[in-house]
Amino acid sequence: MIEKATGNDDYGDEIDRRIIDPLHLTSTSVPTTRVALPRPSSRAYSKFAQTDTGPTYDVTELNPRLAYGSGQMVSSSADLNRFYSALLRGKLLPPEQLKKMKTTVPSSRETSRYGLGLVDRELSCGVHVWGHDGGISGSNSDAVTTADGRHSLAVNFNGDWSGSTDAIMEAEFCGR
Fold this sequence. Notes:
single chain; 8 strands; alpha+beta
């Protein structure tokens, strides 16, 4: 969609120009065919299965291009927090576009709703956080920010079978 809308056949250039460079996201990239992670980074492990049993494989050196626009980016927790804070504070998009992103429909989870690339989650204490999760073999990440962009949390599990980040969000935003 980015390539079609901009006429640029490399969506990574547009991500760099419109997001990474203006927000000074120094630990974020669209790595094309590079297989090594930037330093410092943790190792990444996969079971290559839907369960947590069986052998574990080190998949740190993985070409993320296999995910292309759905998961090819590499970022740090600090950069994810900076990105979502800037987005929710209206520093990336005009107000009408952000409003459209935050227009949600029900999702498969009872406590969340999905917008245009943003998930609205209502935590047990009534706090709403906005963000998105993502994963690729060996990595599960989740980043959320309050509606005013002032309180952010980004988490990465370096095992793709590692489960939910719900308890971490509850602890951070609800003190539970």
